[in-house]
């Protein structure tokens, strides 16, 4: 069990580094609302919520959700100060909905693997 959790900790670190780099790179988006961008936020934050929970770095599930959402808000704040990116409340909303989807997946996993 510990080796699985350690593996997820490594995956989490790599994921955070990758998402942080990609979220600060310059992109060319034609409109301020891009469905693909919001879907990407949703998927990334569902994934991050799941991997953070699986890594077991935090004891309480609520802490997982708060930390992952805080990370999403921090990314948006950083983007506010980049000349080629922008702060968008819809991105934070997409992150939040992704976290909720991650929560649903976690509930299902807890029912399937109650000892994890």
What report would you give on this structure?
By secondary structure, the protein is mostly helical. It contains 4 helices and no strands. It has one domain. It has helices spanning 2-23, 35-55, 61-80, 89-112. The longest helix is centred in the C-terminal third of the chain and has 24 residues, at 89-112.
Key traits:
4 helices, about 120 residues, mainly alpha
Task: Determine the strand fraction and express it as a percent band.
Answer: under 5%
How many angstroms separate the termini? 8 Å
Largest sheet: none
Number of structural units classed as domains: 1
Structural class of the secondary elements?
mainly alpha
How is the topology of this model organized?
Blueprint: H1 2-23, H2 35-55, H3 61-80, H4 89-112
Helix pairs in contact: 1-2, 2-3, 2-4, 3-4
Short recap of the structure:
With 116 residues, this protein is mainly α. 75% of the residues lie in helices and 0% in strands. It has helices spanning 2-23, 35-55, 61-80, 89-112.
């Amino acid at each position: 069990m510990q080796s699985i959790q350690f593996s997820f900790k490594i995956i989490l670190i790599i994921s955070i580094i990758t998402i942080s780099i990609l979220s600060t790179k310059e992109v060319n988006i034609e409109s301020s609302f891009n469905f693909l961008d919001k879907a990407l936020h949703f998927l990334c934050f569902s994934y991050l919520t799941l991997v953070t929970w699986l890594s077991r770095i935090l004891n309480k599930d609520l802490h997982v959700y708060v930390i992952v959402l805080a990370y999403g808000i921090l990314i948006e704040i950083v983007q506010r100060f980049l000349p080629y990116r922008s702060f968008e409340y819809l991105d934070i909303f997409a992150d939040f909905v992704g976290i909720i989807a991650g929560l649903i997946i976690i509930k299902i996993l807890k029912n399937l693997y109650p000892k994890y």
